[in-house]
Amino acid sequence: MAAAEAEPATRVRELLERIAGAAGVAVTIEVDEGPEAIDAEYVGEDVGLLIGRRGETIDAIQHLAYRFAFRGEHERKSVLVDASGYRERRAEVLRAMGDQAAETALGDRRPVPLEPMNALERKVIHEHLKGRRDVETYSEGQEPSRRLVVAPLVD
């Protein structure tokens, strides 16, 4: 079956196989299609090349996978591409970074800007801190230098 005629999950698998092959990385690829998303993961020892610096490569692969999966189709769902659990490990680091920024903001009584990060990473911290009643979060700046700011709430 040609890629254009294949189901979206099959197209995602084919693209991920081609990318891993071109990169010379030996991995297995797991793809799971649910009603609202296609989750794909590279599993293997040497996935660092597929992750890239701060996840930039895996984010680009995910974007390509989404575009490749649903080109010309009207009904779409999200596509998540991971590499040996990288996204959850990164989310843990981001939540810890948010907690540290919140404590600094409260201790110093000033807003604390974090490093520039993409929208998905900013969202992890926004969501993590939104239940706190002592700090607020907001984003400022323009992509690709947009950053999240953690600020103390005034009594």
List keywords for this structure.
alpha+beta, 155 residues, elongated, 45% helix
Folded structure, characterized:
This protein has 5 helices and 6 strands, in the order αββααβαβαββ. It has helices spanning 8-23, 48-51, 56-70, 86-108, 119-129, and strands at 28-33, 37-43, 78-83, 112-116, 135-140, 147-152. The protein has a 3-stranded mixed sheet with strand order 1-2-3. Helix 1 (8-23) runs antiparallel to helix 3. It starts with 7 loop residues before the first helix and ends with a strand.
Distance between the termini: 63 Å
The largest pleated sheet is described as:
3 strands, mixed
The strands making up the biggest β-sheet line up spatially as: 1-2-3
Uncertain runs: none
Broad structural category: alpha+beta
Radius of gyration: 19 Å
Number of strands: 6
| Global geometry | elongated
Q: What is the element string, with H for helices and E for strands?
A: HEEHHEHEHEE
**Helix content, binned percent:** 40-55%
Count of DSSP-assigned helices: 5
- The whole-number mean of residue pLDDT values reads 93
Q: Name the beta content range.
A: 15-25%
Task: Give a quick rundown of the structure.
It contains five helices and six strands. The protein has about 160 residues and is α+β, with helices and mostly antiparallel strands.
Summarize the helices and strands and which ones pair or pack:
Blueprint: H1 8-23, E1 28-33, E2 37-43, H2 48-51, H3 56-70, E3 78-83, H4 86-108, E4 112-116, H5 119-129, E5 135-140, E6 147-152
Parallel strand pairs: 2-3
Antiparallel strand pairs: 1-2, 4-6, 5-6
